[in-house]
Amino acid sequence: MENSTSPLLVSDEVDNTNFPVENDDACNKRKRQKKSEVWPEMTEIVDSKGESRYECKHCHFQLAKIKSGTTSHLKRHLTHCERYVETKKNHDDKLRQQQLSFGPLSIDSTSFPPLRDGKFCMEQMKESAATWILMHDHPFSIVEEEGFNIFCRSGMPQWTSISCVMIYELERKKLSCLLKAAKNISLTTDLWKSKNQKIEYMVVTAHWIDSDCKLNKRVLSFFNIPPPRGGPQISDAILKCARDWEIENKIFTVSVDNASVNDVAIRNLLNDLLRIKNNIVCGGKLFHVRCCAHILNLIAQDGLTEIKDIVDDVRRSVDFIRRTDSRLLKFAEIVKYLNLSERKLIDDCKTRWNSTYEMIQIAISFKEVFTRFKAREPSYVYCPIEEQWKKLEKVFSILKVLYEATKEISGTEYPTSSLFLNDIFRVKMILDENSHDEDEFICRMIEKMKRVHQCPKEGD
């Protein structure tokens, strides 16, 4: 008879009728139930030498059966058994009860918000933190503040600290993927001077159409551009930004303000790009786009010079009232007494005429309030007189057309090239209609504005 070398499972059926039983009572004793968590993962076997051993059900590794009954060595094996660890993880994932939470509910919604998986995900939290910062213009360093992290951990123990650099890198990777998928990218650039820091900044923005035919707009760079800020320096800065994002071969057009320094910058940039690639549309004839909104800004600024003294008085009035809480309170009481809608007084940015327009608009609506405030505040000496208010109202009616045209042309979520001609024609019509006004100052103002406008004549 052949001797079998394969181990014998203890649980296999064995004919033990011929085996002598020493103590019948011992067999009737109830066996203690095995409670250790290792037993479902092990099989008891008998090896070729007749010794009992344990075999792992996952990797089939054999371990000794210790007489004392300890299971420490079995537990140690399971912690290092890769197949067991993977099986347990998959099993736990299936059994784990998913947390459910309601999605965000909009104010005008009448139905229940959708249910979503409420399981904590740190990556999603990072994206949400970035969105929150951008939506409300919070400083990027807010995520590193100790109080912010204490607040997050009190509701989410799994929360780990994140840095603004981490959020930046995360968003940069996402934007880089979007730019790689774009075929042609148009750029806009502008210079902006900080009022407090006395530092000049440059912003470069990308515009493109994605595969779903949707317009996209993203700020690529916002940086300090040190003096001298000539054409070569501006073109070098734009090209460096394009190379950093690896889009120098995708630039379609560049829109800039109507200034001589920008003419030099775009000419230099075009020459640099022509050396890099030869497939620029129309050989670069469409490359340089002059910003229509900036041209309208120049027209409006020239018109405002005619009423500079009145605008200065309005600007000083706003600054005077906003300087102290007591003056603001007194002004608000008059607004309430006259039953006018409460609107915040705004100060303008002298280089952005649309903000000057909005300041004038609010001032005109509070014309009576300023007059009454003057009677209550002897130190207030900037209130325009009735004749000045009338001039301001006339100029406002003309500027309104320019403001609406600027607002429409400055849109970034819809094409504006098809709107340009119609808006410019409306501006021409309002200038022509008021060029022979009975007020001499209006005629002078229109004449100044037309010098910038210079619409092409019939036959040109």
Automatic annotation (TrEMBL):
The main location class comes to: nucleus
Keywords from UniProt, A to Z, are: Metal-binding, Nucleus, Transcription, Transcription regulation, Zinc, Zinc-finger
Name the domain of life. Answer: Eukaryota
InterPro entries of this UniProt entry?
A: RNaseH-like_sf, Znf_BED, ZnF_BED_domain_contain, Znf_C2H2_sf
A biological process (GO) of this protein is: post-embryonic development
Recorded GO MF terms = DNA binding; zinc ion binding
GO CC terms, sorted: nucleus
Give the start-end ranges of region Disordered: 1-24
Q: Specify the BED-type domain's residue ranges.
A: 33-98
SUPFAM superfamilies cross-referenced by the UniProt entry: beta-beta-alpha zinc fingers (SSF57667), Ribonuclease H-like (SSF53098)
Q: Where in the cell is it found?
A: Nucleus
User: Looking at the keywords, is Zinc-finger present?
Assistant: yes
Name of the protein this chain belongs to: Zinc finger BED domain-containing protein RICESLEEPER 1-like
The organism is Dorcoceras hygrometricum
